[in-house]
Amino acid sequence: MTDLDFLAALRREHAAFSACLADGDLAAPVPHCGDWTLYALADHLGSGNLWSAVAVTERRGDLDPPPAPTDRAELVAWFQQCCDTLDAALAGDPDAEAWTIWPPRTVGFWRRRRAQESMVHRWDAENALGAAGPLDPALAGDGVAEVVEVMLPRQVKRGRTQLPGAAVRLTATDVAASWVLGPGSPTGEVSGRAEDLLLALWRRRGYDDPALAWSGDVTAARAVLDRPLTP
Question: How far is CA 226 from CA 163, 179, 193, 214, in A?
């Protein structure tokens, strides 16, 4: 975990997502998210906020909220209520116990996870509407770390992928940080802005994107990343 203000980031990303709902085409398809529309993405993010709030306040992970309303005004109000509910749940001690999908079993886990989730889906929403704004470099760098520390190990534990047999170094040039994904010494390195790395890890961009630079044993390094690292 870092000293980032995840709550401030979460509120900022929620506000930007809400702006998309207020003005955007709710039927717009969302690339990289299957057959989802902007409405379906809003339903996913808002319901996820409610689910995560219950994970904190009731320490359970089985909430099944009803679908979001389809009327635009009602949808915007519903989404804001979901955000407010999560915000209230996360306002307490970040070290307090919570039900989580991966250690640590704390409120702080959800601060980080929801900030990351909201940032990527805000990008999805804006991208669907033709004007994706930038990702905060520090938060995006932490998102790369989360893929290494949480997402890949969880994918392996759930049987969705296998642990790589080699390692690759991920270097974020704009935040002067790097992480090693996989066991042992890195066979190669991929570098770029934290935003570029994170969007590639979440399969929003290809690894052949010109914003990414490769070095070392590129074939082996790319093979490390050629698996479902994230859900």
Answer: 11, 17, 20, 14
